[in-house]
Design a protein that fits this description.
The complex is a heterodimer of chains A (307) and B (266).
Chain A: H1 3-49, H2 55-59, H3 72-103, H4 108-120, H5 125-139, H6 146-170, H7 174-182, H8 187-215, H9 219-224, H10 257-265, H11 270-302
Chain B: E1 3-4, E2 14-27, E3 30-41, E4 45-49, H1 56-60, E5 73-81, E6 86-87, H2 95-101, E7 102-105, H3 116-126, H4 132-145, H5 149-152, H6 165-177, E8 183-187, H7 195-208, E9 213-217, H8 221-227, E10 230-235, E11 238-244, H9 245-250, H10 255-261
Parallel strand pairs in B: 4-9, 4-10, 7-8, 8-9
Antiparallel strand pairs in B: 1-2, 2-3, 2-5, 5-6, 10-11
Helix pairs in contact in B: 3-4, 3-6, 4-6, 6-7
Chain lengths: 307, 266
């Protein structure tokens, strides 16, 4: 190849490579927009809220005086609601997913159900709130309680749990199922001894990501009537005397973190806005630590399983 | 037990462990196995050979009703298991019962992501064996039977995935042996293994012969010649020729078999 032809090829390559540069620059810019906006928000909230973060902030009830107001009832409420959410969504979601993947006959009805589960994940959360108001609060008579809120959010994250569980179940190679069947296991034996344990990392990840979404939900909780000013705690689940366990807290009125925030931001005083920023920071940390936990669990459990 | 003496097949009379009678198999509308008739002799190794797609694995998987796991499959005809004369394919025979009697080793090693011990013990647990001393004993027996005991006896609690490919396959054989099956099915057990691991599996099959009935699918003809007593050549879902392995490889009666054996086809 002579020098002229070689030069031409090099020019061509350089011209084509320019697109690599251009796209890398555009991509970096796009990434920057997303990351910077988030970072700016967090920093702004941290600057506003961080000075309010103290032990008192976590142990005080809301108050008319911003300097004494705290998030005790809100974080306790959020925690208890999340407990109910998990207790409702995990067994129902995992069972539904196992049924769909392992047991359901492959027919039109199953296909319709499958498509609609994915659609359910896209239903606006306020619609779940309206449903819950009619169903849990009035029809079942649970009232404006932790139980109603937990069930509502459980319903809200059910599609996420089902989809995550199905993905996890599907990622198990059929060779593993066949191995279990080949030694004489029943369908339930195969599911219980193999399918569920091996899909646990995926299930846990889905559940925690769903919960991280639920803990920040405001609209459905307002719809079912959470109170924004609560200066008492629900009855403790563990009692000093027989029978030691109490479920009265399930029926207690409550508030949750996002509602407490919403309440403070709607006040005119700037000091309450600082409280809202501090509560936002706490809520963000709760969400991020849940996501971190999901990543950690997936990483730990995946280490055992290679296929 | 029914005895047959087929002069063309064997000089002495053999005990038939299972007999396939007019077996037809359909995957949906695809007629995968066509009128298969052949015996399986007790405590002998029978090999199924033939080009890819000839139905040899499909036939093998009829023996433990693996096809029942997937919709749209249909068996016609019977596979009689002796001495109790059970038709394995009959709709009233539970596939789980069949799999409790007939074990299988797959193409690729497929140990469970559990410990070495638990892999072998699983079949016993499925059968309701809860007594630790009995499970321990049978696990050791099975691992010895699969020529793996000496390599793993000090690390039974290790994950099965930490074993080499050949060791994993021997672990799968141990898992299949632990339940003392009447027939052991091998579906191309060495196709995912290197030559040294392949040799160790073949040696193991030679050891097992005489203890239990083995049916092996292989597309390695040398392997069939080395390990089996009987060979069936299959093509397009039919058994073209079934005979003593030496006869199949030295003087096959069918021209198609001869073409395949000599490498002119396939």
């Amino acid at each position: 190849m002579d020098q002229a032809a070689l030069g031409e090829i090099r020019d061509l390559i350089n011209r084509h490579k320019r697109w690599d540069l251009i796209f890398a620059a555009v991509g970096l810019l796009c990434l920057g927009i997303a990351a910077l906006t988030f970072t700016a928000l967090v920093i702004d909230m941290a600057l506003d809220g961080a000075p309010r973060l103290s032990a008192d902030f976590f142990t005080n009830f809301p108050s008319r005086r911003p300097a004494q107001a705290g998030i005790l009832s809100a974080w306790v409420g959020s925690t208890l609601v999340m407990l109910v959410t998990a207790a409702a969504a995990i067994p129902v979601g995992v069972s539904a997913a196992v049924y769909l993947e392992e047991y359901a006959p492959k027919n039109l009805l199953t296909a319709i159900i499958e498509i609609n589960i994915t659609n359910l994940a896209g239903v606006p959360s306020i619609v779940y709130g309206l449903l819950a108001l009619g169903l849990f609060v009035y029809a079942f008579g649970f009232g404006q309680s932790i139980l109603s809120a937990g069930l509502t959010l459980g319903l809200l994250i059910l599609p996420v749990v089902i989809v995550a569980t199905r993905e996890a179940i599907r990622s198990i190679p059929s060779a593993i199922r066949e191995a279990a069947y080949a030694v004489g296991a029943t369908k339930w034996g195969t599911t219980w001894d193999h399918v569920l344990p091996y899909s646990l990392p995926g299930i846990m990840t889905g559940v925690i990501i769903g919960m991280a979404r639920a803990i920040g939900e405001t609209a459905p909780i307002i719809t079912i009537g959470a109170l924004s000013f609560i200066a008492f705690l629900p009855p403790a689940p563990i009692q000093g005397e027989f029978p030691f366990l109490s479920f009265e807290w399930l029926m207690a009125p409550f508030t949750v973190m996002p509602i407490q925030m919403f309440n403070w931001t709607s006040r005119p005083e700037a000091a309450f806005h600082q409280n809202a920023a501090a509560a936002g920071l706490v809520l963000l940390l709760m969400t991020l630590s849940m996501n971190a936990l999901a990543i950690y669990i997936r990483y730990q459990l995946r280490k055992r399983i290679k296929w | 037990m029914s005895k047959v003496a087929e002069g063309s097949l064997a000089a002495s009379s053999m005990v038939v462990k299972a007999e396939t009678k007019n077996l037809n198999f359909h995957y949906g509308s695809f007629h995968a196995l066509k009128s298969i008739n052949m015996p399986l002799y007790e405590k002998k190794v029978t090999a199924l050979i033939g080009p890819s797609g000839c139905g040899k694995s499909t036939y093998l998987r009829c023996f433990n009703r693996m096809h029942d796991l997937y919709p749209g499959n249909r068996y016609d005809g019977e596979i009689k298991l002796y001495p109790d004369n059970t038709n394995l394919l009959h709709a009233h025979v539970d596939p789980i019962e069949v799999r409790m009697r007939i074990s299988m080793v797959f193409q690729k090693p497929n140990p469970f992501p559990k410990s070495i011990y638990e892999n072998v013990a699983y079949g016993l647990r499925v059968r309701g064996e809860r007594k630790a001393s009995i499970v321990d004993e049978k696990v050791e027996q099975a691992l010895r039977g699969a020529a793996l005991w000496d390599e793993v006896k000090h690390r039974l609690k290790d994950l099965a995935f930490n074993l080499s490919g050949g060791q994993q396959q021997r672990l799968c054989i141990a898992r299949a042996l632990a339940t003392e099956p009447e027939i052991l099915l091998f579906d191309e057990p060495t196709s995912a293994l290197d030559p040294i691991a392949t040799a160790s599996i073949e040696e193991l099959i030679a050891d097992l012969k005489g203890k239990l009935t083995i049916l092996i699918v292989t597309h390695n003809m040398q392997q069939a010649a080395r390990v089996s007593d009987y060979t069936a050549y299959m093509y397009l879902g039919e058994v073209i020729e079934f005979d003593v392995t030496d006869t199949i490889f030295i003087k096959p009666k069918n021209k198609a078999t001869e073409d395949y054996i000599t490498g002119r086809f396939g």
